[in-house]
Amino acid sequence: MLGLDQLAGEELPVIGLFNTLLPAFLLPALILAVLWLGARRWKLALLLTPAIATLVTGYGALFLPRSAPLPAGPQFSVLTFNLHAERVALTPLLDVIRAADADIVALQELSPEAAQVFRTHLGDRYPYQALHLHPINPVMGQGILSKAPVRDSMYWRVEMWHQRAVVTVHGIEVAVYNVHPHIPFVRGPNGLAFDAGRRERDIADILRRAERENKPVILAGDFNMSDRSAHYRLVTARYRDAFRETGWGFGFTFPDFSSPTAAPRGLPRMTLPVPLLTRIDYVFYSDHFQAVETRVWPSAGGSDHRPVLARLALAQ
């Protein structure tokens, strides 16, 4: 499977699914290897070497002590937060946003009810708000909260809806893309099947727009892709991943069903013992910036995604 990833890419659905959940697939191999080594089952442990090598080479550096270079210019912070289209239990979401206290907040799955609460209760902290609501489906809502001036906010659809706005950060105009590419799954006669075609169209459009910018660029949002996917490599060929640069650990952001309000749609609202399995929420940035610190927020506030907070500095 690991070799097919390089040969065939994600055109084979099983490879796409494997890439999406790679750490979740490989972590049991590490646990089994330790157990088998302890039991002196050398041959069985040896069979797991390729899986462990992939885990270590792909993620080992994220567990080592690292020090970011001293920031060259003024700093600011960006929070990306998928709100799970919440309409009722909004106070915990407010608490997360207040506690993170980012300068720019990119919101996905923004419901009309959440937008009204944010206008009312966050207006003093975030006087500049560009909130775009879908008239039917709150999953399509996108919004930006900012402490700095915001102008030229756009809201458009390819497969999903996306947002672009210009935020003036320390006197510099920055193009902020708040995006939400389509999930790489489709419903078929046999249930869900992996198909990244709709996500590919979303990401291709976002990159085309961003590459035409004559301003520094930030891409933030729920990308619905893991850091093993072909689409991740497309994005990072041009932009840096703040968590990869300055984060620690796997950085899993999804799914967080620790709150009763974060049950998957269509299922009863209950606490589900589902662990975080993948990292699909990101802050990417152009070479105009450098990452200073990035962390996955410890609380989801009732959402099924944990937010990502990145502190960036303007490069020299």
Can you walk me through this structure?
With 316 residues, this protein is α+β, with helices and mostly antiparallel strands. The protein folds into two domains: 2-63; 75-314, 4-Layer Sandwich (Deoxyribonuclease I, Chain A). The chain has helices at 2-8, 13-20, 22-38, 42-47, 49-59, 91-100, 112-121, 197-211, 230-236, 242-246, and strands at 75-82, 104-108, 128-132, 142-146, 150-157, 161-169, 172-179, 185-188, 191-194, 217-222, 240-241, 281-285, 289-296, 308-314. A hairpin with a 3-residue loop joins strand 5 (150-157) and strand 6. The longest helix is centred in the first third of the chain and has 17 residues, at 22-38.
Describe the structure concisely for a colleague.
With 316 residues, the chain is an alpha+beta fold.
Percent of residues in helices comes to 25-40%
User: Rg to the nearest angstrom?
Assistant: 20 Å
CATH level-1 class of the largest domain: Alpha Beta
- Regions with pLDDT < 50 over 5+ consecutive residues? 266-273
Overall pLDDT: 87
Question: Tell me about the biggest sheet?
Answer: 6 strands, mixed
Distance between the termini: 43 Å
CATH superfamily of the largest domain: Endonuclease/exonuclease/phosphatase
CATH architecture of the largest domain, by name, is 4-Layer Sandwich
Please state how the strands of the largest beta sheet are arranged side by side.
3-4-2-1-14-13
Give the secondary structure arrangement, pairings included.
Elements: H1 2-8, H2 13-20, H3 22-38, H4 42-47, H5 49-59, E1 75-82, H6 91-100, E2 104-108, H7 112-121, E3 128-132, E4 142-146, E5 150-157, E6 161-169, E7 172-179, E8 185-188, E9 191-194, H8 197-211, E10 217-222, H9 230-236, E11 240-241, H10 242-246, E12 281-285, E13 289-296, E14 308-314
Helix pairs in contact: 3-5
